[in-house]
Amino acid sequence: MNMPDFATIDWRGRAVQIECAWIAPERTDAPLIVFLHEGLGSVAMWKDFPAQICEAANARGLVFSRPGYGRSTPREDNEIWDVDFMHRQAHEVLPALFAALKLDHEKPWLFGHSDGGSISLLYASRFPERVSGLVVLAPHIFVEDVTVANIELARTAYLSTDLPKKLARYHDSADSAFWGWNRIWLHPPFRDWNIEAELDAIRCPVLAIQGIDDEYGTLAQIRGIAARVGGGCELVEIPECGHSPHRDQPERVTVATAAFITKNRRQTP
User: Fold this and answer.
1) Which of 60, 62, 160, 243 qualifies as a FRET site for 47, CA 20 to 30 Å off?
2) Nearest Cα residue to 158 out of 140, 188, 181, 137
3) Which helix (H) or strand (E) holds 238?
């Protein structure tokens, strides 16, 4: 992965710096995979996994940190995300980033983990003609009790352990990353968040992967995706695997992703 660079977008009335890193940009004729991180993720937290995926799939890659994460512009002190925060990322931030990077002509593959998986689904729902396919790991399409319970535990850990210090390795502002994510997920109105109906508009192929031991969601999440998407959906349910399949079972995820992209590239007219 190349050293991170920055793209500037206009979002919510201010200039926001987005941390970006490219993988194998010299593969100019190869497909582009865009990696969307989890609720506490960043460019650095992916480590070398995106490069492994791109090598296996013979692809180029774009890894970026969403606003408030990594080296991207932190949240302002008074900035509190609302129930539509993932919709805003999908409908506003991602198109603005693609425009800033002059990728409007591309039809990328989106590879999203957790919140990043949900944002990928929402982007493909709003812009079905702009996506070649989706790989989503442990995505959320509705809120479950187990998710909220473990996010409450994360809040306790952040207040009482060295978790802020650990997150500071990956974020310029650990508070920006943690509280932006934690407060909205524990905001009572967010319990009604549900994107199932929006999945009907997705027309690209989808690979949905989840660990059987996922502590932040049940298999009802990816099975719910398979019941709704219009472009076809493959499910991979991995034993001995928690909420981060790319960390717990990286080889399984890499093989499944490369096979999925290779197969569906052949089938594209």
Assistant:
1) 160
2) 181
3) strand 233-238
The structural domains of the chain, with segments of one domain joined by +, span: 5-264
Token pair, residue 221, equals 């999440």
pLDDT tens for each residue of 181-195: 999 999 999 999 999
Coil vs helix vs strand at 257: helix
Per-residue buried b or exposed e for 70-91, using 16+ beta carbons within 10 Å of the residue's own CB = bbbbbbeeeeebeeebbbbbbb
Fold of 5-264: Rossmann fold (3.40.50)
Give CA separation, 168 vs 70, 178, 236, in Å: 9, 10, 33
- Per the structure block, which two tokens stand in for 149? 């319970």
| pLDDT in the model for residue 125 | 96
**What distance in Å separates the CA atoms of residue 126 and residue 259, rounded to the nearest whole number?**
26
**Out of 16-20, 64-68, 101-105, which region has the weakest mean confidence (pLDDT)?**
101-105
Contacts of 269 (CB under 8 A, 6+ apart): none
Residue 245 has which token pair? 């399949």
User: Tokens 């983990």 — which residue?
Assistant: 113
Note the pLDDT tens digit of each residue in 166-186: 999 999 999 999 999 999 999
Q: What is the pTM of this model?
A: 0.96
